[in-house]
Design goal:
The structure is a homododecamer. Chain A is α+β, with helices and mostly antiparallel strands and about 70 residues long. Chain A contains one helix and three strands.
Amino acid sequence: MSVAKVIELTASSSKSIEDAVENGIERANETLDEVEGVWVQDIKAIVKDGKVTEWRVNMKVTFLLKG
Amino acid sequence: MSVAKVIELTASSSKSIEDAVENGIERANETLDEVEGVWVQDIKAIVKDGKVTEWRVNMKVTFLLKG
Amino acid sequence: MSVAKVIELTASSSKSIEDAVENGIERANETLDEVEGVWVQDIKAIVKDGKVTEWRVNMKVTFLLKG
Amino acid sequence: MSVAKVIELTASSSKSIEDAVENGIERANETLDEVEGVWVQDIKAIVKDGKVTEWRVNMKVTFLLKG
Amino acid sequence: MSVAKVIELTASSSKSIEDAVENGIERANETLDEVEGVWVQDIKAIVKDGKVTEWRVNMKVTFLLKG
Amino acid sequence: MSVAKVIELTASSSKSIEDAVENGIERANETLDEVEGVWVQDIKAIVKDGKVTEWRVNMKVTFLLKG
Amino acid sequence: MSVAKVIELTASSSKSIEDAVENGIERANETLDEVEGVWVQDIKAIVKDGKVTEWRVNMKVTFLLKG
Amino acid sequence: MSVAKVIELTASSSKSIEDAVENGIERANETLDEVEGVWVQDIKAIVKDGKVTEWRVNMKVTFLLKG
Amino acid sequence: MSVAKVIELTASSSKSIEDAVENGIERANETLDEVEGVWVQDIKAIVKDGKVTEWRVNMKVTFLLKG
Amino acid sequence: MSVAKVIELTASSSKSIEDAVENGIERANETLDEVEGVWVQDIKAIVKDGKVTEWRVNMKVTFLLKG
Amino acid sequence: MSVAKVIELTASSSKSIEDAVENGIERANETLDEVEGVWVQDIKAIVKDGKVTEWRVNMKVTFLLKG
Amino acid sequence: MSVAKVIELTASSSKSIEDAVENGIERANETLDEVEGVWVQDIKAIVKDGKVTEWRVNMKVTFLLKG
């Protein structure tokens, strides 16, 4: 019997959508050690003076619960 | 790099929808100190003898994860 | 074995969203006597001359079917 | 043949959900004169120091296009 | 004022959908003691050599937060 | 010209999801005699002391309206 | 205070989508006398020997509840 | 680099769903000259005395923004 | 044990929504001989010089798989 | 680089929801040999004389495409 | 009282999803000067001869309405 | 009369979301020669040891059916 927990995070990056996802995973790894995957729910961009300053991704992060 | 976590709560009030949301935030504040915002997902009313006894709100609460 | 029926109503009020819900419940109570709860599906406002004249709520009303 | 246009606004209020909707309608009325109604799509609350400082409503506003 | 928290789990069973839900509740009970209910969001089956080896259920678990 | 009506019920069973659906159909049959089918919309489980006490199914029931 | 009820019907026609909707309204009118409007939820076509034999429309029918 | 804008209209016709869409496009063409297409979002019928008096279509209209 | 397969098609017609659906079924019939039905998912109109040149329907087509 | 294809089936069983899913997989296996998993999209029951005669499941079936 | 307007654009790029979003913002900036953010609704790719020639993004653009 | 077929694929890449889409198109091109476009439905990331090892995209691929 394996059970996984799913948490929701919002992470951001000035570089790209992929980098925002990786920032969220990196932060989740500080407290969780069995992150299995991520589902990207929503993609936003924050704009200042006509430029994207931040790619912001809302995501579901799945990690295994130990025994 | 900022990362926010999103949790889901259901809170209620006998007074109003807004009061139910505020009750949920008040409870979240006991353990979290950087609540940024709330998204109201669902609004229900519990009825007894033809009267609303409880406004019940399901909500997503966003708070900043510290560095 | 308990079975509940769910009906859909649209009710309105000039005062507030909560009052529109309560108007719908009051009307349902005239013919049903075991209303348990309400789920607010949609909230609209009718506008005349730049003022809200009516808060209109579409809702699902749940009531117990007797034995 | 009547045709209505639908625009999307986000408006806010420190008081209530209903007041946020009315603020959005008031602003729409400055440039449009036949607002017919509003559909509330999303309800959020902005939180500072554990208190709701702003009720923020995303809404679709419908107004008649003249002949 | 009662407030409930909602968490998301994915649990599995080789036997049935119902058994997968019960496995998820059993695991949640190890750390939470007031589980009230479960909403089944998604049902999947993992297949090997043409046979279902695992029923996998994604679910929202609601539990009361103590005063 | 055939017309069918669709009603919404919530029924439950301590045994299984299938049994909850059959309980809802049984109750519908007391007053309707041409039930054609059921669409399962939502599946929930009520939990007490870490055990599922009730499988609760929300469903749409379709039945033929006579001529 | 006006309250409207919403019921769900499935009606069909061998001619067109519009005719299927009108058949549903005609049937609803036999028992209800204040039908206000219809929302078309789903459109299907039944096919036999490569030809559409029936346009089948699932719809929500709104009617006023008297006083 | 081509950019298109999408606006939302509600248009109606006493004749058919297709005619309601064409009425909306005709009105849009009075102020826009590069309408590319329409996506039908919602179909309603307004009913008086048991007859459809109006087919009402909510639609997204896409048109090219000039360089 | 009967199993049906569901495929997705987009078909079009210069005449009407119904005709676009029938064009899709006609094409499906060239390779499949047990089409049972169609579910209309999306309706679009392609516009040139302010006129609808094409009704385009996205649809799910269901056909029986033989034993 | 791995690519999987997803097809949609509707399968049924007189016994249970799980058995309907397994019937769909069994049929898919006759022509495909790398079925990986199934996502249950919709659950229906066909009713005759007040009894469920068929559990009918609409599902997405995923299988690996070979190199 | 702040009110923001939300418009819908579709923009494209031959390079990447992020570049398509930035092209849409750049175009919006020609007529609007307070773009705050973008929500990516849909991502498509146009294909010619087996290659992606265009990443096409549908997005909601939010900008502040002045006092 | 043109008819297009829509199939669903899941493709992946260790590099980027765009590359995963292109891998799916490349594979589709081995058996189909008129791919017109792709709609990205879902974006996931597979994680091992805190790093994204695979961007996995679920997509609908549209291609023209000949004559």
